[in-house]
Amino acid sequence: MPLSPEDIEARRFAARKREIVERVLPVVEQGLGEDGSYLNLKLDRILHGASLAKSTFYRYFKDKNELLLALIDPVLEDVRVAATHPFDRGSAPTLAELSADLRRNFDIYRPHIPLLNALVEISYSDPAIRARFHQGFAEVHQTIGRHIAEGQRAGFVRAEVHPAQTAAWITWMAERGMSQLVANGDAAERDRLADSLATMVWHTLYGR
């Protein structure tokens, strides 16, 4: 069935919006890395860095917060895939395997820390931003909780662990640790941080 003119226009609009998001993302992340605050990052600076006209911006976004929502979607998906990978298995990992998985996660997560911090910053004043932030990490929480429950049924996760509550601690401990610890650590420090987090998680879930 051929597409209607409205459908064609909607697809063109969505494709153009994705193109703008891809162009703007590195400009915003660089600005956040320098200034540390999304509130203080001026729209004119973003548009200048992305060579984007203000009229074009307002055709696709009503304001900077709506832009942030669009910017964060691909980032949260990258984070979700990376964060759930260590728990996408049907048996207990070795401590070394878990540490290596977490270390890879650090390298995926680290470039996006300024943008994720911006999401936290704006979430205090914008309910839509707050909901998107919690939704993104709720998927990580649920995946880890399922892994724990399934592992208990299979016998490789400790039976006394509470799946939902332990998954919540792992999720939010890691999320804040990325921002507070991993962001500024050099490669050797990130190795030690990965080993430390892996040790805590491994002994909590699998250790005897």
TrEMBL record:
**Portion annotated as DNA-binding:** 42-61
Alphabetized UniProt keyword annotations:
DNA-binding, Transcription, Transcription regulation
Which lineage do the record's taxonomy fields give for this organism?
Bacteria, Bacillati, Actinomycetota, Actinomycetes, Pseudonocardiales
Which residue range or ranges hold the HTH tetR-type domain?
Answer: 18-79
Enumerate the SUPFAM superfamilies for this protein. Homeodomain-like, Tetracyclin repressor-like, C-terminal domain
Could you tell me which Gene3D superfamilies the record lists for this protein? Homeodomain-like, Tetracycline Repressor, domain 2
Q: Which organism is it from?
A: Pseudonocardia eucalypti
Q: Name one Pfam family in it.
A: TetR_N
Q: What is this protein called?
A: HTH tetR-type domain-containing protein
